[in-house]
Amino acid sequence: EDLADVVTDRGIRIVSLMHVGGDGWLKTLDFVPRSRAHLLDVIRAGERADGSSLFKGMGIRTGASDIVLRPRPGTAFLDPFSPHETLAILCSHTGREGNPLPESPDTIVRRAHARLRDELGVDLWALGEVEYFLGKRATESDIYGQSERGYHATSPFVFGERLRREAMALLAGLGVHFRYGHSEVGYVEPEAPDNLIWEQHEVELALAPLPEAADGIALTQWVLRNLAHRYGMRLSFRPILRVGHAGSGLHFHMSPVVDGEPRGGRDDDGEFHDAAKWLIGGLVRLGGALMAFGNREDGSFTRLRQGKEAPTAVTWGEFDRRGLVRLPVVPMDAEGKPVSTPTIEFRLPDGSAHPHLLLAGVAQAMVLGSRTDGLDALLAASNASAAKVQPGGAAAVPNSRAEVSEAVAALRDVFEAGDVFPGVLMDRVLAER
Questions:
Q1: Whole-model pTM above 0.85?
Q2: In angstroms, what CA-CA distances link 226 with 17, 235, 331?
Q3: Percent of the chain scoring above 90 in pLDDT
Q4: How crowded is the C-beta side of 125, counted as CA atoms within 13 Å?
Q5: Is 72 strand, coil or helix?
Q6: What is the mean pLDDT of the chain?
Q7: pLDDT, tens digit, for every residue of 139-159?
Q8: Three-state DSSP string of 307-347
Q9: How far apart are CA 290 and CA 365, in angstroms?
Q10: Above 90 in pLDDT, residue 267?
Q11: pLDDT band at residue 390, thresholds of 50, 70 and 90?
Q12: Cross-strand pairs, 128
């Protein structure tokens, strides 16, 4: 009723149902309400769509492919890029019987999140560090940039500052919360074949429950793409833009919440909370297999092989940026009290990641960690400092699609546990060698 009032009071003519497809990108279904009753029907019940096209290769038969986009009214916002005032509403997906669609990335991450709460009593929150490259033709004003020297640079030393700040303002209006934005280290001088000057930026989002965290990534990428188009610039989330230069990661910070309290760090005695150990141990065990959803391009392996603050071994460390998992520093006030939430950072994913499927996999990894015998011994052996002195060192992260498939095959049952990941999706992953 509130949304119908907004549409009427503002004279909005277009309503857009937005949702995440099988490829991880936002999709839209637009309509013009014929009446208030028509609008309310759509908001309450949704609209049909072709599931075999939205989730291609995931087992939805063309002969029975009708699904329903089910709006979530609390996500509504005014589309800042539409030439006509448009109300956008994020949607979930249901099948013909009205149940959550198993093949939908939204369903998968929600089921994984619910399983954590039901089985472990943990509400897992996450945030993504969205790194991206902006490219444009060099002009006389672009005289300050230096290769690999862009970290925290400000105008006029970077040209993308204005776009980044506009993106942050728009995201706040859309209800996407974030911590900060800044220019990143990556800077690529013009060279053939495109002769574009590229610079790297980052927008780090704020912690949110897994489903909302995944949506926040999709909306952030959508806003950045639209702004780059408006500014006449190129934009890339690719894991590697030029061989030899820093690539774009999509690091995720996680905070397990138990009884309303964050448990991503240590207790007063300096010991890890159980939930923190479950998550770290699960990521160490499942990290290579998670690359199926977090490192989806050939360039993903090039980025890792370069080793520029990217993990090459299955290790974790307190602050080590070369670890698969690390524990970032927590700022303290003058009295020594933390002023932000302790998090566990998963540094393996890159800009090719499918955020909904990846975060669902992280949740499944945490359950795995909770059921791992000898978890303390695993954490001791996989600690970055300890692994360096052990014979043979730590296991290397997968270095090809085939190695990722092997890692998935070995732990396929972890993904499918609790009916979270459909078997047909795992079949497709294993076929993509």
A1: yes
A2: 18, 10, 34
A3: 71
A4: 16
A5: coil
A6: 91
A7: 777 767 777 778 888 888 889
A8: CCCCCCECCEECCCCCCCEECCCCCECCCCCECCCCCEEEC
A9: 9
A10: no
A11: low
A12: 252
Q: What number of other Cβ atoms are within 10 A of residue 120's Cβ?
A: 20
DSSP 116: H
What three-state secondary structure class fits 129?
Answer: strand
Using an 8 Å Cβ cutoff, are 258 and 267 in contact?
no
Identity (one letter) of the amino acid at 230? R
The CA distance from 143 to 200, in Å, is: 16
- H helix or E strand, kind and range, residue 304: helix 298-306
Residue appearing with tokens 């770290």: 280
Work out the number of other CB atoms within 10 angstroms of the CB of residue 238: 16
Cis omega (within 30 of 0) for bond into 156: yes
| Alpha-helical runs (H) found in 55-183 | 105-120, 161-174
CA 128: distance to chain centroid? Answer: 5
State the Cα–Cα distance between residues 36 and 41, nearest whole angstrom: 9
User: Which amino acid appears at position 13 of this protein?
Assistant: R
Using a 10 angstrom Cβ sphere, with 0-12 exposed, 13-18 middle and 19 or more buried, the burial of residue 9 is exposed
Look at residue 6 and give its three-state secondary structure: helix
Q: Given this model, what pLDDT does residue 107 score?
A: 97
pLDDT at 405 (0 to 100): 95
Confidence band (pLDDT; 50, 70, 90) for 386?
A: low
Output the six-digit token pair for 300. Answer: 């993903």
Q: For the purposes of burial, counting CB atoms within 10 Å of the CB of 143, is it exposed (0-12), middle (13-18) or buried (19 or more)?
A: exposed
The DSSP secondary structure of 255-284, one letter per residue, reads EEEETTEE-SSB-TTSPBPHHHHHHHHHHH
